[in-house]
Amino acid sequence: MRERFWERYPLHELTAEEWEALCDGCGQCCLLKLEDADTGQVAVLNVACELLDIPSCRCGDYANRFARVPGCTRLTLERVEQFRWLPHSCAYRRLYEGRKLAAWHPLNAGDDRRLRRKGIDVSSFAVSQREVPEEHLEDHIIAVLPIDD
Ligand code: SF4
Ligand code: SF4
């Protein structure tokens, strides 16, 4: 990967490896969401996808994630509309919006200790989808995302 690529190149010029390396591993995009069909509002739950390994905030089967979880979406620059539901802290969203990576981002900090100390990752509060019956999902709403447009 090129030195400090996240500061020197726009998103569309990143290599596949650099694109992957941008992910800070927070796991926030793996939290389940409920969309209100009438208002378009998106509620975020503290319930993580069944494949997320919560302590590490890593996907339990990254290579096969799309086959295993139909709702899992590939994050690409072309699918900009999806940036709406990503957290403001997300590296892809930050760079897309012209912001810089945070000082706590592993690429800046060298590892994920600062990210974890600041509670950016979901390991301290997420519960697995495997433990929450579907009829109880609404009890797990932790935020409702503002509608930007
Ligand atoms: S929210 Fe963004 S930075 Fe965090 S895990 Fe998902 S893609 Fe990576
Ligand atoms: S399949 Fe993996 S990457 Fe996709 S939402 Fe679930 S844990 Fe996250």
TrEMBL record:
Pfam families: CxxCxxCC (PF03692). InterPro entries: Puta_zinc/iron-chelating_dom, UCP006173. It comes from the Bacteria. PANTHER family: UPF0260 PROTEIN YCGN. This is UPF0260 protein. It comes from Bisbaumannia pacifica.
